[in-house]
Amino acid sequence: MNIGLDMMGGDFSPLEAVRGVQLYLKGTTAPATLFLIGDETKINPLLQEYAIPAASVKVIHAPQVIEMNEHPTKALKEKQQSSISVGFHLLATGKMDAFISAGNTGAMLVGALFSLKPIEGIQRPTICTILPKTSGGTGVLLDVGLNSDCKPENLNQFAILGSLYAKHILGIDNPRVGLLNIGEEEGKGNILAQAAYPLLKDNSQIHFIGNVEGRDLLIDKADVTVCEGFTGNVILKMAESLFDISREKKIQSEYFDQFDFELYGGTPLLGVTKPVIIGHGISHSKAFLNMIVLSQKMIQTDLLGKMKESFLS
Amino acid sequence: MNIGLDMMGGDFSPLEAVRGVQLYLKGTTAPATLFLIGDETKINPLLQEYAIPAASVKVIHAPQVIEMNEHPTKALKEKQQSSISVGFHLLATGKMDAFISAGNTGAMLVGALFSLKPIEGIQRPTICTILPKTSGGTGVLLDVGLNSDCKPENLNQFAILGSLYAKHILGIDNPRVGLLNIGEEEGKGNILAQAAYPLLKDNSQIHFIGNVEGRDLLIDKADVTVCEGFTGNVILKMAESLFDISREKKIQSEYFDQFDFELYGGTPLLGVTKPVIIGHGISHSKAFLNMIVLSQKMIQTDLLGKMKESFLS
């Protein structure tokens, strides 16, 4: 199993990426081989400093870097020797089984959509986030920003992808799917939600429990919540801000500690043919560690294979 | 100044409404005359019990009650002697200057839209909420659920209504208006946000500061945040749930204490010709008190007159 890691992506790379690799290798008995992609003159000294065993990693030299604010399409075209471009090339050609980056989000999305195919039958790939529940568990919310305008069928497909993710990655049997809405009863909501409801209700691949509201997002109601990417992105960023607020206000709370995005590593891109994980720009070692662990789990559970099967019919 | 209060609306009425009236009359030097609308056989004994001075209130007998789960249009038609129907009649005919209810939200909205006119020039009335900021101030978010699908011009009008509310009710000079979006730069977002941005930018009646994101909702960035009512309602209910969570988790935090909706009383309906305030079903005395205070302020500042002027041209 080969997992590729963009060593140049994120505000604290390559140092925090190397430290994440160190945490991963120390804590895993049968680690994957890590392809460390980036500028070898910057990576190698750190690997030595942090005593990373050479047998577990393979440095792939990529001399260019796509910076955080570059235009994604332009940057990918002009910087074919960048860590992101090289990573997607290795992923698309089967040399790696997953690719992780905390770099330019747009470049990661564009790169994934252009170099990988969507899974046959999937109209729109999606990105999801984990929301911590007051009951102690976690839920999946999707889409969180890739598809800011959606058709009803997109939400229906997100429900399948989210259910498979909840089942195989979060270990939730028969995950409950809720449609994010502004009222409980069928027929409530905006045009999209009204049209998506009957599709979800008739979808035999999911366990649909009806509408859920803003007040239900953080409690143990639905395991998977679907919405278009506009509302989902607002929720994601508001939830992330709760962690910052709890720190700023010195609130001691195990619950709000769970809003630390580094615990979940990054945002998986679901619906493309290979595992791709996009990290936050301000990722530290813990986030890199958890992104590696997550991608390993996605490979081990054959999540992508299960998604492909679901959309075969 | 006559302020009408539906004594039968809400889960804890008329008792909590009477207790709210008591708090108001005790704490105000020049109180408005309160029209207490509802079943006099239930109200009068409570007024006596709580020693409400007869000079400050006028009981308006309304023998019927629209229950929380009744169909709004049907209930308003069939129960013309209900407290909500009687209240809107008194408001529309000029006998009262404001109307408050914690009863059936749908009936309040339908009643307001049918018995009152929208302010000339306003396409869609809206409801707003207060969001507490970590810096100590408060912001206005609108729409929070009345308009789940919007056109760009609706958001532009909400920006004007929200700015006037922030200025005259919250006392914020030159309030900063943000467009809720999923990225900072112009051109980001869904079709609605992309189309609303240039309208807001060209609107000389507001102080537009550009896009704001989910992470900015609770910090001191915009004083007024505009969005369609779907996303706004999800945020509102998620924010309300934070108060419940902070109680459940026994989190000691002055900041999260500010998420107690009773502090803000209720949701004003903006864009109709008279002040209408809709309370939460589970309102207690503090919420009733604050709804009375808010409606008094809306009358005293002639907020509605200012809104009418703004849309004259």
Give structural notes.
The structure is a homodimer of 313-residue chains. The first copy, chain A, is an alpha/beta fold. Chain A has 2 domains: 1-121 and 271-302, Isopropylmalate Dehydrogenase; 123-267, Isopropylmalate Dehydrogenase, CATH 3.40.718.10. Chain A is 41% helix and 18% strand. The first copy, chain A, is built from 11 helices and 11 strands. In chain A, strands 3-2-1-4-11-10-5-6-9-7-8 form an 11-stranded mixed beta sheet, sandwiched between helices. In chain A, helix 7 links the parallel strand 7 and strand 8. The A-B interface holds A 134, 145, 148-149, 180, 182, 189-191, 193, 213-219, 227-231, 233-242, 244-245, 248-249, 251-253, 255-256 and B 134, 145, 148-149, 180, 182, 189-191, 193, 213-219, 227-231, 233-242, 244-245, 248-249, 251-253, 255-256.
What is the structure about, briefly put?
Chain A has helices at 15-27, 40-49, 72-78, 83-92, 105-115, 152-168, 191-201, 229-248, 254-257, 285-300, 303-310, and strands at 2-6, 33-38, 57-61, 98-101, 126-132, 138-142, 176-180, 207-212, 224-226, 266-270, 276-279.
Order of helices and strands of chain A: EHEHEHHEHEEHEHEEHHEEHH
Biggest interface between chains: A-B, 41 and 41 residues
How many domains of chain A, as an integer?
Answer: 2
* CATH class category name of the largest domain in chain A: Alpha Beta
What is the CATH third-level topology name of the largest domain in chain A?
Answer: Isopropylmalate Dehydrogenase
> How many beta-strand elements of chain A?
11
The CATH architecture classification of the largest domain in chain A is 3-Layer(aba) Sandwich
Q: Could you name the CATH homologous superfamily of the largest domain in chain A? A: Isopropylmalate Dehydrogenase
Strands across the major sheet of chain A, in which order?
3-2-1-4-11-10-5-6-9-7-8
Helix content of chain A: 40-55%
**Average of per-residue pLDDT values of chain A:** 96
Largest sheet of chain A: 11 strands, mixed
Structure class of chain A: alpha/beta
Instruction: For the record, give the distance between the C-alpha atoms at the N and C termini of chain A, rounded to a whole number.
Output: 29 Å
Please work out how many helical segments of chain A DSSP would assign.
Answer: 11
Q: Given the C-alpha coordinates, what overall shape of chain A results?
A: globular
